[in-house]
Design a protein that fits this description.
Number of helices of chain A: 12
Shape of chain B: globular
Oligomer: heterodimer
Shape of chain A: globular
Strand content of chain A: 15-25%
Largest sheet of chain A: 8 strands, mixed
Strand order of the largest sheet of chain A: 6-7-8-3-9-10-12-11
Order of helices and strands of chain B: EEEHEEHEHHHEHEHEEHHHHEE
Structural class of chain A: alpha/beta
Strand order of the largest sheet of chain B: 6-7-8-3-9-10-12-11
Order of helices and strands of chain A: EEEHEEHEHHHHHEHEHEEHHHEE
Helix content of chain B: 25-40%
Helix content of chain A: 25-40%
Radius of gyration of chain B: 21 Å
């Protein structure tokens, strides 16, 4: 087993809102191994983005607050760093790509200028060196006439091309880790295929580790080696990708996979929908966060929040019920 | 089960949006959002209409309901040409055809109570008295699995899935026979999507509804549709039964589109072959000559730039617009 590049332990993040405190992340622990791709799956509000933003020191405070936890990256705790220290890590050793390429790029600066900035800042390149490297980076992510396009502004690129620019920027300082937060959600499916294809190629060329956050179980299936499923600010299941899809063991994961139609294979009957709605997180639950929607729920689920327990090699599940033995109620 | 009678026939539908410039608003061009689309929807069936953003699928849906007046072409609903109807006649026909919108946040008036939203179509069309209306609203809310007591609340008090149910209740109020569902689930969370799709299927069985289901999610379209039309840049490139399209797509765009959809199964993902299209969709203000898809098509030949391919039946019930499919 290769060593952990990133080791997150007991992360808790809250937000103060006018309606009360929102418990967004409630004790999340996971590791990222060198060179692996970790998928983080969950619906909106499950805490997947807040977890990553917390690690990167990008939670606006106030209203956000990291209440507890640590995030070890090369023996340093990212959560304890000063803003200057974490700025040196962000963009240099850890690259980031966000969902909406239009709002993540500065509309009044040329793409070339935005690409050169991290190169000059983190790697100390001269303007000329940075310009050459920026053109190389654009070519690497498959943008034609890379050198000429450096003087273009973000609005002159299509959505898919802008996301390529974002990826070029995130990879510009050869990071050890790339964190991608729903990078293909805003894109059409044929463009999504282009981007995931590109990322797969770059991942093997550059040998970096990746965290890919998404709500799309299909994208993760083709990209990740290991998957974390989040619900209500908790990790509720974690497993290698094949194991998770072949053997989902948390009622929520089972429900999610059952609710997805597929373009291949035999025709399914009615979809197995999950009843109810995701929790609002205004209270830190002292019961299982999924209990109100669960088909396996029993008395214990309302009294104690289950912790992750190993059910198979590298497969951990937070559930009191034995979903393999008993059917749903 | 399905009565083969045609409920809706769309004939060479065109919708161009003018591009104007200068103080005299001179027309300098047109966005050819829909450029010659023909298909039929049979009574009681669900026709899926898929394509990527900007392909004209939503414009097609709106032009059918005359929410946009088509530039040319005809739309026959139950034998009546909707493009010829005006004013009161059109309004009366609208009772029979309704729409469910994509964004459950923008499509409900935030200042109206849920009960009033669902009641409004009943009052506009004068189909019930004020006294009967309350009972009918309660019945409609129950139909979409909402508590009738919710009628007194405002839309902001509801989640996205619940709001979409309110929109469905409003669409059902006048007992329509045809509903255009314009991306009804794409704004919802994954676990909520299945709830809404199951509800739509149940309602269809109960009331023998006919759906035009517009979506970009090909997996969901496969699940809900009887037949599927694939659009690209304002034209339908392929139309056939659901099983035929998903097992034997003939148009190169349909093939690439299907191969790009991720499958939630790592074993299947690892072994499948992908056709990755190069480049982006051209602008509908200046579409390519001949076949619209030729600039990205992996098998395009000279003829594709010269002539627009005819939308023809290559097998019984299987229509394709491609020069190179025999």
């Amino acid at each position: 087993m290769s060593e952990l590049l990133l080791d997150v332990h007991g992360l808790e993040t809250t937000f103060k809102t006018s309606e009360g405190v929102v418990y967004a992340v409630n004790g999340v622990s996971f590791g990222l191994k060198e060179g692996e791709t970790l998928g983080v799956v969950g619906e909106s509000g499950c805490g997947k983005s807040v977890t990553m933003l917390s690690i990167l020191g990008l939670i606006p405070s106030p209203p956000g607050k990291i209440v507890a936890g640590s995030a070890k990256f090369f023996d340093h705790d990212l959560l304890k760093m000063s803003s200057a220290e974490i700025r040196a890590v962000r963009g240099a050793q850890i690259g980031m790509v966000f969902q909406d390429p239009m709002t993540s790029l500065n509309p009044v600066l040329t793409v070339g200028r935005q690409l050169q900035e991290p190169l000059m800042l983190h790697l100390g390149m001269t303007k000329k060196q940075a310009e050459d490297r920026a053109a190389e980076l654009l070519a690497m992510v498959g943008i034609p006439n890379a050198k000429d396009r450096l003087s273009d502004y973000p609005h002159q690129f299509s959505g898919g091309m802008r996301q390529r620019v974002m990826i070029a920027m995130a990879l510009s300082c050869s990071p050890q880790v790339l964190i991608a937060d729903e990078p293909t959600t805003a894109l059409d499916v044929t463009i999504q295929a282009q981007i995931t294809d590109l990322v797969k190629r770059l991942r093997s060329e550059l040998g970096m580790a990746m965290i890919w956050i998404t709500h799309d179980l299909g994208v993760v299936a083709g990209l990740a080696q290991r998957v974390i499923v989040m619900y209500g600010g908790f990790i509720i299941e974690e497993a290698p990708v094949n194991e998770l899809y072949a053997n989902p063991s948390h009622p929520y994961t089972i429900g999610l996979i059952g609710s997805l139609p597929r373009v291949d294979g035999a025709e399914q009957g009615r979809l197995t929908a999950i009843d109810g709605v995701p929790p609002m997180l205004f209270e830190k639950p002292n019961h299982c966060p999924f209990a109100p929607r669960c088909k396996w729920v029993m008395e214990r689920c309302w009294n104690e929040n289950p912790v992750l327990e190993t059910v198979a090699p590298e497969h951990r599940v937070a559930c009191w019920a034995d979903v393999k033995k008993e059917g749903p109620h | 089960m399905v009565d083969n009678h045609v409920l809706l026939r769309v004939d060479n539908l065109v919708k161009h949006f003018p591009i104007v410039r200068g103080i005299f608003q001179k027309q300098v061009g047109a966005v050819r959002a829909v450029d010659g689309v023909s298909f039929e929807v049979k009574r009681g069936e669900t026709l899926g209409l898929v394509g990527e953003s900007g392909c004209g699928k939503s414009t097609t849906g709106r032009a059918i309901l005359q929410l946009y007046r088509p530039t040319s072409g005809n739309v026959y609903f139950d034998g009546t040409d909707l493009t010829k109807l005006k004013g009161e006649d059109l309004r009366k026909t609208r009772r029979k055809m309704q729409m469910i919108f994509q964004d459950p946040y923008a499509s409900l008036n935030p200042r109206m109570k849920v009960g009033d939203i669902v009641r409004e179509p009943l009052l506009i069309h004068n189909v019930v008295t004020e006294a009967e209306a309350n009972a009918r609203v309660a019945q409609l809310l129950e139909l979409v699995r909402l508590n009738p007591a919710f009628a007194a609340r405002y839309p902001h008090e509801f989640s996205g899935g619940q709001r979409q149910r309110i929109g469905i209740a409003r669409a059902l109020a006048l007992q329509p026979s045809f509903i255009v569902c314009d991306e009804p689930i794409s704004a919802l969370d994954v676990s909520i999507q299945a709830q809404v799709v199951n509800l739509l299927e149940e309602l269809q069985e109960q009331f023998n509804l006919t759906y035009l289901f517009i979506a970009h999610d090909l997996s969901m379209v496969r699940h809900i549709s009887d037949r599927v039309a694939v659009m690209y840049l304002g034209v339908v490139v392929e139309l056939t039964t659901r099983n035929e399209l998903y097992s034997n797509p003939l148009h190169p765009y349909a093939q690439a589109l299907l191969s790009a959809v991720p499958i939630p199964d790592p074993v299947a993902e690892a072994t499948r072959k992908r056709t990755i299209l190069v480049g982006d969709v051209p602008s509908p203000a200046n579409p390519p000559s001949g076949c619209r898809f030729r600039t990205r098509c992996p098998i395009a030949e000279a003829i594709c730039a010269e002539r627009r391919p005819e939308f023809r039946e290559v097998k019984p019930g299987h229509f394709v617009a491609c020069h190179l499919v025999s």
